[in-house]
Design a protein that fits this description.
With 499 residues, this protein is an all-alpha fold. 81% of the residues lie in helices and 0% in strands. The longest helix is centred in the C-terminal third of the chain and has 54 residues. The radius of gyration is 23 Å and the shape is globular. The two termini are 28 Å apart. The relative contact order is 0.10.
């Protein structure tokens, strides 16, 4: 449990640092390289991650290794990793061929980009593609550390990666370097993080790879599991990773930049609210193997914590987000506010239910999850081109919002059908007491904005601070139970006085 608590705390610290630096860094980068180049940067990152992902094998590493380690069969865990690495090397070769082929079709795919933008994008694409092919075989390192419950080491590596990226990018901007240097810095920091994770695996785990191990039955089992996880991963990439490309076809670099700001905000929101995700797979696996009736109490306990975090972020952003974006990156990005709201609203319901999603993985019900994600992807693609042609970035954000709601409804059906969870009971215990604090804070924000002009940083920070303190106070008085209050106090090493 110490690994989980400390790992979660490090996640929040790392994200807090990342957000703080990003608030200062993003407008600096846009000012330095220009809005259109920022759009090309966003497009390059999205097209690479559209093709380069773990194909479900990282989840397979975590699931199977956690299972074998819990059973005390470390030899089986090592053999499983050996099989996965052979699959990774084969997939990496195929990815190299795909990325090479895509390069030659860039002018045909992105016809809305100017010839100059196409030339820049090709260079950025080459840099990012080379790093992606080099780093792909090391993706299982996350699964190895998670399966061994080495969350502190994993989060420290991720924290170091953030610091290196921001530090080196800042140096590049100070020295007047542009778009190409920024993409190269991401690759450089990624390689350093790989080295750090390799050290952690070797230093803190008993993991060893036996490339001579062969077992066709076990390989088939891993592929059967990871195949459906791959479907889920592909469908997820039909959302954010495909969106910039659709705008590249329908609108141009300026719309991509507007969406890029909204995606950045959504990414901060998701990462902050999901800091605990992934840490509970070993524990959920043990629950599913022994007494599944213990799942709902865990889901409610973690879900309430995540609900408080995500509701706080979403509501405060709704209240002050428009002024924040105008002050942060300029009024030309003002429509990013509406895009961001559409992107983060579905997370209010989805993120607090991540324990149930983890249980589906532990119970090997990923096939059913994959069907829901297929429906989500079809819905998004079906709406994205039509809505983006009408309302550009806002249109595609609306498409994503609708697709996410389809996903949430489908997953809740599976939680009832496959896990026998009383979802209505979860919603009552998790969300019912949040309604009044939310209404009070929104009312306070409306009153504040009616009487005070918040078009400068001082007024904005004052309003955000007042609303944040008020919302936290309302959560403490009207929502949090005794255990949650004790947990909050323990994070600051404060002993609660006995009544």
């Amino acid at each position: 449990m110490n690994q989980i608590k400390t790992g979660a705390l490090l996640s929040y610290i790392g994200l807090g640092i990342n957000i703080l630096i990003g608030l200062l860094y993003t407008p600096w980068m846009i000012h330095s390289i220009g809005r259109d180049n920022f759009g090309l940067y966003t497009l390059a990152m999205s097209i690479i991650t559209l093709f380069v992902f773990d194909f479900g094998l990282s989840s397979a590493v975590t699931r199977f290794m956690a299972k074998y380690i819990a059973e005390g069969r470390n030899d089986k865990a090592n053999n499983c990793l050996s099989l996965v690495y052979k699959l990774y090397i084969g997939i990496d070769t195929i990815l190299l061929l795909i990325l090479t082929a895509v390069y030659f079709f860039i002018p045909c795919i992105y016809e809305s980009l100017t010839p100059a933008e196409i030339g820049k994008f090709k260079i950025v694409y080459i840099i990012a593609s080379c790093f992606s092919v080099i780093s792909f075989p090391f993706i299982p390192l996350n699964g190895v550390l998670s399966a061994n419950e080495k969350f502190i080491q994993l989060k420290l590596c991720e924290l170091a990666n953030k610091i290196i990226i921001v530090g080196t990018m800042s140096a590049c901007l100070l020295m007047g370097y542009g778009l190409y240097a920024l993409v190269s810095v991401n690759a450089f920091a990624g390689i350093i993080m790989i080295v750090l994770k390799l050290y952690c695996v070797r230093r803190f785990t008993d993991t060893k790879i036996n490339f001579g191990y062969k077992n066709s039955r076990e390989r088939k089992e891993i592929l059967g599991f990871s195949g459906w996880v791959t479907v889920i991963s592909v469908c997820q990439r039909m959302i954010f990773n495909l969106a910039p490309s659709i705008l590249g076809i329908m609108s141009g670099a300026a719309s991509i930049a507007v969406l890029g700001i909204a995606i950045t905000i959504e990414g901060y929101t998701y990462t902050f609210a999901s800091a605990l995700n992934g840490m509970f797979l070993p524990k959920v696996s043990r629950i599913m193997a022994s007494d599944s009736s213990d799942l709902m109490p865990l889901m409610i306990r973690i879900g309430r914590l995540q609900a408080m975090v995500i509701t706080f972020i979403v509501i405060i952003f709704i209240c002050v987000g428009q002024n924040f974006i105008n002050l942060w990156v300029g009024e030309e990005f003002s429509s990013s506010y509406f895009c961001a709201i559409l992107l983060i609203l579905p997370s209010l319901i989805q993120l607090p239910q991540e324990i149930a999603s983890t249980a589906m993985v532990a119970a090997n019900k990923v096939k059913h999850q994959a069907i829901v994600f297929i429906a989500m992807a079809i819905c998004n693609i079906g709406l994205a081109f039509w809505l983006s042609s009408k309302w550009n970035a806002i249109g595609i954000s609306l498409s994503i919002c609708i697709a996410y709601l389809v996903r949430t409804i489908g997953l809740n059906y599976l939680y009832v059908k496959d896990l026998n969870l009383k979802i209505h009971y979860f919603f009552v215990k998790t969300f019912s007491k949040l309604i009044l604090p939310v209404l009070l804070v929104i009312s306070a924000a409306f009153t504040f904005n009616h009487f005070i002009n918040t078009n400068n940083w001082f007024a904005f920070i004052f309003e955000a601070a007042i609303l944040s303190i008020s919302f936290v106070g309302l959560l403490w008085l009207m929502y949090m139970n005794r255990d949650e209050k004790n947990l909050a106090l323990s994070l600051f090493r404060i002993r609660r006085l006995k009544n």
